[in-house]
Design a protein that fits this description.
By secondary structure, the chain is mainly alpha-helical. Among the domains are: about 40 residues; about 60 residues. The chain has six helices and no strands. Helix 2 packs across helix 3 and helix 3 packs antiparallel against helix 6. The chain is elongated, with a radius of gyration of 32 Å.
Length: about 150
């Protein structure tokens, strides 16, 4: 009888340990999932490092513009010789595809940066508007305005 009670107690203790381990594993899984989602979310990095993100976007945009477009343009005189099509002057499929991808990526990144900057400015302006009322000390303890006790 004593061994049956001991086995029952041991079984209950083992079940309690398993439940605790299961709960801890679930908690660890949720934390890991949240960290992975946060690490893969570009908005997290933009909100955490706004100036670095803006600089990176500017650098990426500058790098996407072909070097020929950045050089100072000198006058081009077209002659009959230039009108003849030569295979070297025709764009390749790869260069056309690269130009399309870089233009699209630049447009998407600049649009995202503009949206983020607008949201950031709106939040900051809202914070600045709210600050004077909280700094004057006119609020009651519950934050709804002057107290009339």
């Amino acid at each position: 009888m004593a061994t049956a009670i001991a086995k029952q107690t041991e079984r209950q203790a083992l079940q309690a340990k398993m439940q605790a381990l299961k709960a801890r594993m679930h908690h660890d899984y949720r934390n890991a999932k949240e960290r992975v989602q946060q690490a893969s979310d570009w908005k997290f990095y933009v909100s955490r490092y706004p100036w670095l993100s803006l600089g990176g976007i500017a650098l990426a945009s500058y790098a996407m513009v072909p070097a020929a477009a950045r050089t100072s343009a000198s006058p081009v005189y077209v002659t009959d010789r230039h009108l003849e099509s030569s295979p070297s002057s025709q764009p390749t499929i790869a260069s056309s595809l690269f130009a399309f991808v870089t233009r699209t990526a630049s447009t998407v990144l600049m649009g995202a940066a503009a949206r983020w900057a607008t949201e950031f400015a709106n939040k900051r302006i809202a914070e600045l508007i709210q600050e004077p009322s909280t700094q004057t000390g006119d609020l009651s303890r519950d934050g709804r305005g002057p107290s009339h006790d």
